[in-house]
Amino acid sequence: METQEKILQTYFGYEHFRPGQQDVITYMMQHHNTLAVMPTGGGKSICYQIPGLSMDGTAMIISPLISLMKDQVDALQALGIAATYINSSLSVDELKKRMHDIAIGRYRFVYAAPERFETASFLHVIKRLDISLIAFDEAHCISQWGHDFRPSYRSIVPELKKLRNVRVFAALTATATEAVISDIQRLLHISDEHVVNTGFARENLAFHVIKGRDKTSYIRAYMSEHSDESGIIYAATRKQVDSLYENLKKQGYSVAKYHAGLSEEERKNAQSAFIHDERTVMIATNAFGMGIDKSNVRHVIHYAMPMNIESYYQEAGRAGRDGEMSNCILLFSPQDTQLQKFFIEQSQMDDDSKQQEYRKLQAMINYCHTHQCLANYILDYFNDPSPKPACKQCSNCSKNHEKVDITEEAQMILSCVKRMGEQFGVTMTAKVLKGSKDKKVAGFQFQKLSTFGIMSAYTEKELIERIHFLIAEKFLSMEEGKYPKVRLNANSVDVLKGKQEVMMLQAPIPIYAEEADYDA
Ligand code: ADP
To answer: In what residue span(s) does the Helicase ATP-binding domain sit (predicted)?
Structure first.
């Protein structure tokens, strides 16, 4: 529609809509509740800002990210648009003044956190207001299937849906699995034809998995070549953050740190130093990042594997919001798996939820072992609808690895799994193939199996890596849980019968690894 494009040009100064934007705007203008799933940096704000400007009344934006509200409001005000936000950072007087101005319809846009909609005084005001639209930003937080579930975000929905003075509802998110999408649809009454899913692809991100390297020396080598680029290093525990911080600081790098064990002031100062480029690299636990909108982050390095692909993609996705090429590097070691399992076991979740977390963890482990294009692996995980040529820049695509036929090795591994009764995990299977003298192996009488020691020429580490590869490529299945068991599946049977060959990339050579150093 010409008028929408005109608003895009005159208010925002952009020539054309990005994929999906115009559909979302058109549906909203026709008063159809709409869900927009677009990647970070894809331009979700404009999807509700243009309808908000085109319709009468006030647009209410519900955002769980208090720190982003001010930025959004500042940006709108700079364009000459009346906008404000309501959150706990305001003084009582300021809050009163803003609430009065909201009540008389002075603003086109009002940003508020979900919790605000639970207060009677706020509801009293908005019930009497002419509301153009209500937009749920970061809408995955509404769903308990989402990874950042906010109970109050969900509980306010029925009350808001009852309002008669709202023309249309919109939900926007960058991370939503199928379960989350249908949950949001059901809650907000969004029909299938009004779900605009442009996919999650972030073409400027190069994904890398690095295995078998000393993590700290890898980071130091990387930093020595990228010392003036802004980056985030995520570690799994506060202890890891502290020790990495000391290590890099000693080397003279400009670092800041952030975790829940620091005081609020320390965290605030660290965050601000990073945002304003006074410190180049932030070393943090996953407590850092929600609501951080820093566009020039050139690399996100994970010192350890996170708990699932959702968290990984969200954290890694903080790189390259400005569209420039950026690296997302995951440093994997087998201990990372143990740590994540420990977190799941220690949690208060019921057994079903734990089982689900184990399933998600397994998909994350498979990411570290697959030889497919890493970008496509992630997009497949989210059932991304867009076409997917190989990315040509991830650690599996970028080098000219040769493919080797490992069908025979695979058959040996699969038959060993079968002979062990499909009741054991990866390490035990590797020990049997190796012919290990381990007491546990003898305890189960595995030395009597015909597959005992048939791959003794390999190191145990190599065998573990091969088995993980077969799982990641779905030639073997993993029964998830505290004590996972390796099982055969239909693909395994095809391989054993010689109907299916198994090809593997020659060990991928990671960036910043001297070849002699590499051992995985
Ligand atoms: P998201 O919320 O999806 O992460 P934003 O709404 O913050 O993304 O938009 C990211 C950046 O892209 C912003 O700087 C925004 O102004 C810009 N942008 C949005 N739409 C367009 C467009 N059609 N053309 C050019 N730039 C755009």
So the answer is: 25-194
Binding site membership of 43 for ligand 1 (Cβ less than 6 Å): yes
For strands 195-197 and 34-37, give the pairing. Answer: parallel
Buried b / exposed e along 369-391 (16+ C-beta atoms within 10 A)? bbbbbbbbbbbebbebeeeeeeb
Residue 85 three-state SS: strand
Nearest alpha-carbon partner for 70 in 226, 291, 268: 291
Q: Give residue 15 CA to ligand 1 midpoint distance, Å.
A: 12
* Three-class DSSP category at 388: coil
For 323-427, strand residue ranges (E) read 326-332, 403-405
Check if the beta carbon of residue 59 is closer than 8 Å to that of residue 131.
yes
Q: Using one digit for the tens of pLDDT, what is the confidence trace for 486-505?
A: 999 999 999 999 999 999 88
Q: Report the mean per-residue pLDDT for the chain.
A: 90
Instruction: Report the interhelical angle of 44-54 vs 2-12 (nearest 10°).
Output: 110
Rounded CA separation 132/54 (Å): 9
Q: Report how far residue 413's alpha carbon sits from residue 430's, in angstroms, rounded to the nearest whole number.
A: 8
Question: What spacing in Å lies between the alpha carbon of 459 and ligand 1's midpoint?
Answer: 50
Please provide residue 74's backbone torsions phi and psi, each rounded to the nearest 5 degrees. Answer: -60, -45
Q: Is the distance from CB of 394 to CB of 207 less than 8 angstroms?
A: yes
506 DSSP 8-state letter: S
Cβ(44) to ligand 1 under 6 A? yes
Report the alpha-carbon distance of residue 38 to residue 19 in Å, rounded.
9
pTM value?
0.73
How far is Cα 17 from Cα 343, in angstroms, rounded to an integer? 43
Report how far Cα 56 is from the mean position of its chain's Cα atoms: 36
What CA–CA distance (Å, rounded) separates 59 from 74?
16
- pLDDT over 90 (residue 242): yes
407-419 helix and 426-434 helix, angle to the nearest 10 degrees: 110
What ipTM is given for this predicted complex? 0.98
Sign of the torsion formed by the C-alpha atoms of 356, 360, 366 and 372:
positive
367 phi and psi angles, rounded to 5 deg = -55, -40
Q: Atom 21 of ligand 1 has which residue's CA nearest to it?
A: 43
